[in-house]
Amino acid sequence: MEVRIDFHTHIIPESFPDFTEKYGGERWPVLNRTCACGASILVGGKNFRDVTDQVWSPEKRIQDMDREGVDIQVLSPIPVTFSYWANPEAATEMAKIQNDFIAETVAKHPDRFVGLGTVPMQDSVTAVREMERCINELGLHGIEIGTNVNGKNLDDPSFLLFFEMAEKWEVPIFIHPWETLGRDRMPNHNFMYTVGMPSETALAAASLIWSGIMEKYPRLKICFAHGGGSFPYLIPRLDQGWNVWPHLRLTTHPPSHYAKQFYFDSLNYDPLNIKYMMERFGYEKIFMGSDYPFLLREINPGKVIDETLELTAEQKRGMLGENAARFLNLELGKRGAVLANSATSGE
């Protein structure tokens, strides 16, 4: 039976606290209600994004899921709430509020939702501690992190402990762009979303490969948002760089070898791109993701997969749900209900 899992959705608590009052500073996101069914996320007093009640109401989400044919949503925080810039103690408090809310939402609707947590990546020891709590105490199925931490690429040595423990505990990692490179050149046209984010994602993926992290931790499970951004199309150029600059090599094999270890959501809008990704990575490494409930989301979720011609039934089932279930260590029931968490404990 075909089970549709939307791997890429975002959620925030309706009662999101105002940390500017408690800790000071202008970079904390604040949820400012504008009406019964909407709000603005403010940062530094400026409107960062308008949102609807879809972003906090499980009931509204389930209505949309039923209308759009989605069995399960994977819930993850909104990247603006990562707060990697903050004091680790304050950032941990911010993370715990969201992780607890996501776990509570999943507990109320275990047949419709699966949760990913967030951790304070600016301090790896604290991040590992919260990751363990997410998996072993809250029953979440993975961790969402940003593409950089205060301008440090993900190959920075300070993150090795986090990746080491994620591999050891078999914790799936969802990498989402935020604080994109070149923001000062993208004030117009919303290019931060359409050009900046794909480029930022490519830099994160290339950093993990070229540095040797993916060679060092070959069982690390990583999925990139937005179809990997521009990364899938830069792999031949990365390989060429590896070939012509042997003095820069830090890995045994060229980048394309390690790129096959990655997973990607399907949010690239075009069947031509899906076909290319299938050829380069295999259909097993792709799963449906819509970016619900934001404006750039795919409606209906899985549309690009449904419109990709000449897929076998196995390929379609895989990309619409089975691949995501396998990535997240889920066991699925007859209609998609989550029956068990088979993730390795953090012992």
From TrEMBL:
Family that this chain belongs to: Belongs to the metallo-dependent hydrolases superfamily. ACMSD family.
Keyword line: Decarboxylase, Lyase, Metal-binding, Zinc
E.C. numbers: 4.1.1.45
Top enzyme category: lyase
Record organism: Fictibacillus marinisediminis
GO BP terms: secondary metabolic process
One GO molecular-function entry: hydrolase activity
Keyword Lyase: yes
PANTHER family per record: 2-AMINO-3-CARBOXYLMUCONATE-6-SEMIALDEHYDE DECARBOXYLASE (PTHR21240), 2-AMINO-3-CARBOXYMUCONATE-6-SEMIALDEHYDE DECARBOXYLASE (PTHR21240:SF27)
Subunit structure: Monomer.
Pathway it works in: Secondary metabolite metabolism; quinolate metabolism
Domain of life: Bacteria
Residues covered by the Amidohydrolase-related domain: 5-330
Entry protein name: 2-amino-3-carboxymuconate-6-semialdehyde decarboxylase
Taxonomic path: Bacteria, Bacillati, Bacillota, Bacilli, Bacillales
A Pfam family this chain is assigned to: Amidohydro_2
SUPFAM superfamilies listed in its UniProt record: Metallo-dependent hydrolases
Entry GO CC: cytosol
Keyword Zinc: yes
